[in-house]
Design brief:
This protein is an alpha+beta fold. It has a single domain, classed as Alpha-Beta Plaits, CATH 3.30.70. It is built from three helices and four strands; from the N terminus they run βαββααβ. The chain has a four-stranded antiparallel β-sheet with strand order 2-3-1-4. Helix 1 runs antiparallel to helix 3.
Length: about 120
């Protein structure tokens, strides 16, 4: 597994609540259609503890490997998701491809807000 993680910034004309509501209710279902997507998590920043980076949220998306990321990146589904980003967020986020080294697995909290393509 490989993960893409990135920062997300609300547009100036959105409140933090409007930003998260749009993302979770409108954008996430569009973005979740990306082929090869194995997991999708949005982490809302509630408070910064330390450091220089400012962001409203982080996005994490899991794929089988870098080739799956490349295939997804070239898809019309991902193009539609990127087209939607500007409707609620700034397009100046920073993204990384990372390999996780899980030391203590997070608790399983249920199936999530969206239906997975694996559920079909």
């Amino acid at each position: 597994m490989i993960k893409m993680i990135g920062t997300a910034y609300k547009r100036d004309d959105f409140t933090p609540e409007e930003f998260m509501r749009y993302w979770l209710e409108v954008h996430a279902p569009i973005s979740a259609k990306a082929p090869g997507l194995r997991g999708y998590v949005v982490s809302e920043v509630i408070r910064k503890i330390q450091g220089e980076l400012e962001t409203e949220a982080f996005v994490e998306q899991w794929f089988d490997d870098e080739e799956a990321v490349a295939r997804s990146s070239a898809s019309p589904e991902l193009a539609a998701a990127w087209e939607d980003v500007g409707r609620y967020a700034k397009t100046s986020g920073t993204f990384w491809l990372v390999k996780e080294h899980v030391l203590i697995p997070p608790p399983i909290r249920g199936p999530g807000l969206l239906r997975s393509t694996r559920d079909e």
